[in-house]
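quick one, 292 residues, struct below
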Amino acid sequence: MKSLTALFLLFSVCAFAQTESIFWKIEHPDIEKPSYLFGTYHLMNSGFLDVKAPKVLKAYQQADKVLVESKESDAPSDGLMQRYFFENPSISEAVGPANSKLIDSIMQLRINTPLSTFDKTKPVLLAVLIGLEYHNQYIADSGNYEGIPLDQYFDKEATANEVPVFSLEQPEESFGFLLDSISQSDQLKYLVLNCQYDSAMYRIAGVMFESYKQNDVPRLMEITNYYDGLVTDISSYYITEGRNRLWLPRLINHLESGNTFIAVGELHLTESYGLVSLLREQGYTLTPQSLE
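---
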């Protein structure tokens, strides 16, 4: 479930945005202590903090509380799988023989599974499963840092040290944005186009990973825009903007006490509807920070 959410965030559109850093200081004239906002890459391991981002690690370790998108302990309801993973018509019925054959070939190539296994799955989830494999393959080829994925680390380490950890959303809310709000026809188009451009996806995953490692937000934006030029993006509102606006009042409520560390996917920070812009509109001063 967590890995599916991660890939939706990796494929969110990012343009015309704040490009200075993946790490921001948050200040307000009525709040004594600053807070910090860090944009994560969900598949990057926590050793990245020691090697490339010690200032982020310091802000995290000194925080009075931590905010993450969703804690691991926030278990989805029993009916979530049934609610979101199956509907009619089947994918093969909806896309026709030629596209069905294409999707089946890519699924067998990338995840060693025929389309028939997931034919009643919502199409966007299949696109995510396939997309996740490109990122996993690039990381396997190029190497990751030691540790566990950043989002898990921020949750688990704070909990172990008895620092309060809060979720910005519940699983039902995030999957509601991801699946309930996107039409079946748009999901099908998204899946087919991702399969059609299979040959480009490994390179896109690699540029995303390397750009993030270097805190090169403009390059990260450039590659996400390139991706958007290949496929019809369905995520900018439902997966990024809608969730940011859902989070904003909850985020502000926690910021009022100061010294809060916030960790969310990097692409939630950018755009005019990114958290940097939205918090500035609420009277907060956000200043980009170096990682080292």
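Residues 91-110 form the longest helix (20 residues).
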